[in-house]
Amino acid sequence: MSIRIIFLALLLMAQGAARADGKAIFARNCAACHQATGKGIPGAFPALAGNSFVQGESSQVAAVLLKGRGGMPDFSPALSDADIAEVLSFVRSAWGNQAGPLDAQEVAALRESLKVPAFAAGQMSNKH
After folding, report:
1. What is the Cα–Cα distance from 48 to 102, expressed in whole angstroms?
2. Which of 44, 45, 87, 106 could form a disulfide bond with 40, CB atoms 3.0-4.6 angstroms apart?
3. Within 13 Å and on the Cβ side, how many CA atoms surround 116?
4. Could you tell me the pTM of the whole model?
């Protein structure tokens, strides 16, 4: 194998590792309440598996993460637009859900239209 091919393979692997992983983001930020199975905790945290809202209009689902809703906190300072897109894309297609993915540009446009503060990106930004 040439050095060029090895370098290209390493570069592609690094780009893949740098990309947000929706399942991992869910595990860190959502699973404590909504459970790893997506079934939630009855009477406390709603199920995401089979949830028609989660599978509905993507901008409404993203707005919940950006602004919070009911007892759910907003994740706008804690998650980047790419992270929100990745975690929602995961949730909308996991546990039998069959909704399309979101992209970071869609979340960024929604963040701007809702006038939600920008992602803090700091080490102490995750208040959850």
Report:
1. 16
2. 45
3. 24
4. 0.80
Instruction: Quick: pLDDT tens for 82-113.
Output: 999 999 999 999 999 999 999 999 999 999 99
The 10s digit of each residue's pLDDT in 15-63 is 444 456 999 999 999 999 999 999 999 999 999 999 999 999 999 999 9
Task: Please name each of the domains of the chain with its CATH number.
Answer: 20-113 (1.10.760.10)
Q: Tell me the three state secondary structure of residue 72.
A: strand
| Residue entry with tokens 């503060």 | 117
What's the sign of the alpha-carbon dihedral 96, 61, 101, 30? negative
What six digits make up the tokens of 89? 């894309």
